Structure formats: structure tokens, C-alpha cells
Amino acid sequence: MAEFLNNIMPNVVEHYEDLIQATGETLIMVFIAGIISLTLGTILGIALVVTNEGHLYENKIINSILGKIVNVIRSIPFVILLALLVTFTKFIVGTSIGIKGAIVPMIIGITPFISRQIEQSIVEVDKGVIEAALSMGLKKHVIIFSVLLREAMPGIIRALVICIINLIGLSAMAGTVGGGGLGDFAIRYGYARYMLDITVVTVLILLIFVNVVQGIGNIVVRRISH
Amino acid sequence: MIQLQNIKKNYKIDKGIVEALKGVSLNVEKSDIYGVIGFSGAGKSTLIRCINLLERPDSGKVFVNGEEITASSEKELRQARQKIGMIFQNFNLLRSKTVFQNIAFPLQYSGLSKKTINTKVVELLELVGLTDKSDVYPSQLSGGQKQRVGIARALARDPQVLLSDEATSALDPQSTHSILTLLNDLNKKLGLTIVIITHEMGVIKEICNKVAVIEAGEIVEHGNSIDIFSNPQHPTTQNFIANVFQTEKIHELILDERISSIIKENGIVIRMLFTGNSAYNAYISEVSRKFSIDINIIFGNIEIIQNLPIGSLFAVFNGTSENIRAAINYLKVDKVLITVLDQKAIITDNKREAI
Fold this sequence. Notes:
The complex is a heterodimer of chains A (about 230) and B (about 350). Chain A has helices at about 1-10, 10-15, 15-50, 60-75, 80-85, 85-95, 100-125, 125-135, 140-175, 180-190, 195-225. Chain A is mostly helical. Chain A has a single domain (about 1-225), classed as MetI-like fold (Orthogonal Bundle). The longest helix of chain B is centred in the middle third of the chain and has 18 residues, at about 175-190. Chain B folds into two domains: about 1-235, P-loop containing nucleotide triphosphate hydrolases (Rossmann fold); about 245-355, ACT domain (Alpha-Beta Plaits), CATH 3.30.70. In chain B, helix 5 packs parallel to helix 6. Chain B is built from 14 helices and 14 strands. Chain B is elongated, with a radius of gyration of 24 Å. At the A-B interface, helix 8 and helix 9 of A face helix 2 and strand 6 of B.
């Protein structure tokens, strides 16, 4: 068996410790960046909805400012964002390379995207339901948490899945500028040293990640949709 | 119970301003089932939303149970709303919650104990006849059942007033009837004051003791249902009533040769509307005998409104002009409402409709 593996992917076998470490790094980056950006994105998404015209906390100025910030960040390609944020990242986490250095731009890159996704799911909640909640004399914050978020949950889970899959992609890209993780691993060995087997194995691992996330997401959405 | 005083509400749209309500006043007394009827765009939805301030009027005052809610603070308004239940055309139930959780929802933030809430919800489920659907999600219910959940939810905080915004418009006739029966029972059992917005005269006919007709942001006619039904004044009201009695059918009938051929020389078609006591007399045979005219009934129906019958009859009167005139006068004295239908006018009217 060992011999067989050694024959078809000698480089992977040789560097398998690095591979495992890189996989771990990717998981850590996606996990930490995911938790933080989902939190920020949800808050921003809610804010984008409820400050809209005719909504619970209508406020044109805040709505327009938030919308513009989100649009500006979303229009910058991630690789460029990485370069743009070097100083900022150094200021926040003390370094601009490695896992730590990658997580900051990943959060900033993905949060506006999540917030739009969350905004979309919340906007799809029937306005009549909000009206019904208002007619019951409920407080506005109760309506946001117990009506808007609860009713939008299937959409939010779907947004979460897309966001994690995107983060996996971003983590690989961050690797190209010394961010660590599977992207970094594939570039250093697969690309720079022409070790094709390493590139292929990296792709396979990412493929498995994405499918597992999507699969779990689908199951959860099916469970909570009525 | 509810007073609206000179309510005005405008909406800004791209092309200018729409006057949704142009100074509407309304007085709903305790235990009334007050119907507000109008075509779509007449302002009736805005009107009902002004009662619990889902829409804030530009000017005018709203009193509910003696309290001026247009002058209340946000907190007072929330408390007032808890005593005003509301049901909707699209039910507006929470999809993510079961029937039980939907009904319990407004109670969750009332400081009641879990046990009290449970007892209350079980009672409400029984009241609306959905005990067996407690753990089902709204998507598995029929329209009529969804509206029952809506009603139970609206009653959760023991309101004195129930607002119904086209609550039966999305339902089939059978469910409509059962929901209206339920509302009527609640009115009798709990003394609940109900305001109903609708575009169907059938709804008014079935349960409302009072009715207001709204058109282009103004109430054009209001009063007791029985009076409005028997003697509508405004053209819009007459239109709605005509729908109930299906009086437009007479146009088709009169064009039918078999019917037009029975109208002899001097003969005319008249509509007789019998209300109250006049509905119980044997007018046709009496008039026929007294004035020696032949009466041929071509179309008619009887509606029961607030337990009183209203009869509408279209008949051909054949005889001498004098006798016919005398017969009509006789009926008029006895408070039968008489409308003489000009055959030509009807025909032209009908043609106009056809175009």
C-alpha cells in the first residue's frame, strides 16, 4: 500500500506532515474568520434591512452609508484587498503573514458579502408578518430577533454555507501571499516545484471540504424549513 | 368603543400625492360588528390600519376604548395594541413556528408563566376548533384553518376589539362562511367588538349589524345593515347591493325573447323590494285581485339580513295604465319600494355594459 502511494504521489508522501499542517491551518482560518465575519455580517445585514425606507428603524443616512461601504469593499478583488490591507492587518494582529495575517483580510473581504446575503434572506420575510407582530404590540428588538431572524433562518443557513465555501476559496488565495494553509502549500510545492501530485491532492481535499459543508447545510435547511 | 375623528392620510408617490383618506369619521360601539366596504383602492385598508396606528394618520384623532391613541407614547401605543387584535387576508402566521407556538407567540413577552400560557393556548385552540392541529406547521393547514390560527393568536391577549382586514378574501365560500360564523360566535360569546374590512357585500350581509361604504377616501353612506340593504342611497352602495340580489341578471332576462314577449301593451317591468313587515304580506295576489292586473314574476330572491328578510322581486305588470299606476301607488303606501324599469333604458344600459 505504502509503496503504491509512493509510486503515484511521491511528493505527497514525502511532505505529508506539511500537508496535514496546511489542512489544519486552512480549517482554523475558515473557522475563525467564519465565526467573526458571520457575526459582523449578520449585524450589518439586519442594519441594512431595518434602516430601509418604511422599515422598523428607517434611517436613510445610515442605510446609505452602510450600503456604500459594503459596495466599495465588494468591488475590490480579494488579491488586491490583501495588498491594500497589509498595514491595517499588521496594526490589528501584529503581522501580515501566516494564519493571523490572512484572517483579517478574509474577514473584511467576506463580511460585506455575507451581509448582502443575510439582507436578502431577511428582506424575503413577508412584510405582513412584521405588520402582524407590530399589531400585537411587540417591541421592535423582539420583532428583529423572534420574527425576522427566526423566519429568515433557512435563508441565513444557505448564506452561511455559501460564505464558508467562499472562505475556503479566500483562504487558498491568501496562501499565495504567504498566508499559510492549503493554498500556500499548493503554491510552494505544486506550482513552484512542479509537484503536480501535490496540486491534485490539495484540490481533492478542498473538494471534500466544500461538499461536506454543502451537504450539512442542505440537511440543516431541510430540517428547519416548514 | 372606537371613534375616528376626521382622519386624513396622504401618500406620496412618484407623480404626486394620493389622498387615501379625506377626513373620515367613524363611530363603532361596543359589541358592534362594523363592516367597512369599498372597492380596492377606496382607502379601506388604510382606514383599518389607522385604528391601531399601523398607519399614522396625517391629521385627526383615534380613540379606542376612551383612550386617544393618536396622542399616546410608543409604550402606551404598544399596550393599546395588545388590546386590539388583528387578523389579515394573508394570515401572516410565522412559518417557522407550529400552530401552538404561533398562538403562544404574543403571550411570550407578556410576563405570564409558561404554565399559564399553555393553559391559555389550549383554551384558544379549543375555541377555534383546532385542538388536533396544535403541533402542525402553518404550511400544512388549509386557508380556513390558517385564519383560525390567526384569530386564536389575535385573541391571545384578550382584546376588546378585533380588526379584520379582508380576513376572508383569500378563502373559498365554505371556509368564508365558517370563519364568519366563528367571528359571530366570538362577538356574541365574548362581547368582542369587531371591525371588518371587505369588498364583498356577502360578508356584510352575513354578520355585520352596521356598515359604512367607503369610496375614494370618503365614507359615502353608513348606518344599520338592514337599512342600507333595503334602501341604499349612494350609487356605490346600490351597486354593492345589486350584487347581492344579483339584480344585474334582469338585464339578460329582459333581452330574452320569451320574457320580452310577455310584456303586453302598457305592460311594464317593476322591481319590488319588500323589507321588514312588508315581506310577510301576500301582495302579489292582493294587488292582482284588487286592480285586475296580471302579474308575472320573472326574477326574485330573498335575503336574510340581521335575521330580517328582504325580498326583491322583478315582475311584469300587464293591464291598463290606470290600473297599473293605482297598483303601484297602493304598494308604495304600504312601504314596498318600487322601481319602474324602463325597458328601453335597460336595453341600452345593457348594451353599454356589453361594449
